[in-house]
Design brief:
CATH superfamily: Aldolase class I
Function: Activation of anaerobic ribonucleoside-triphosphate reductase under anaerobic conditions by generation of an organic free radical, using S-adenosylmethionine and reduced flavodoxin as cosubstrates to produce 5'-deoxy-adenosine.
Organism: Hominilimicola fabiformis
Strand content: 15-25%
Keywords: 4Fe-4S, Iron, Iron-sulfur, Metal-binding, Oxidoreductase, S-adenosyl-L-methionine
Number of strands: 7
Catalytic activity: glycyl-[protein] + reduced [flavodoxin] + S-adenosyl-L-methionine = glycin-2-yl radical-[protein] + semiquinone [flavodoxin] + 5'-deoxyadenosine + L-methionine + H(+)
Pfam families: Fer4_12 (PF13353)
CATH topology: TIM Barrel
Shape: globular
Helix content: 10-25%
Number of helices: 5
CATH architecture: Alpha-Beta Barrel
Number of domains: 1
Oligomer: single chain
Strand order of the largest sheet: 3-1-2-4-5-6-7
Amino acid sequence: MYYGNIKKTDIANGTGVRVSLFVSGCRRHCKDCFNSETWDFCYGNEFTDDTMNEIITAMDKEYIKGFSLLGGEPFEKENRMAVQYILKTIKEHFPNKTVWCYSGFAFEELVGECEDILKYIDVLVDGAFVAEKKNLKLKFRGSENQRIINVKKSLEDKTVTELTEGEYDEY
């Protein structure tokens, strides 16, 4: 798997200060995507053990609240094995830090096929970016069709549980 960027102090893609990884590869090609360079599966650098160690080191600070995974598309078939390894490793090292993930796939599309990845995610921002529904006033998402989902509760209850703005800070 390739990645486009690692942000070691990100405050835009989840609550608090986070470490964010932008994976490469996306077939959705959303109109006006803010990160279209990552559509190419070979964009950026190859993800290696050194990359994983860089993320672990960056996260090993008290002020880092968690990890955010973006793209590209983390749930593209080509990325799934690496993404599962990354999230599992992060949760093993930092069980009390939260994981946010952004995906163009709807939660319902991922259940069943990707629960081995979803189980490591606390919050999923799902749904493709829709330029016609863009709203700059939204927190942590770009368009009104996107949802901010409590993954653990949604998996347990077998129905989507969206987080309200007042609940974000818990994650």
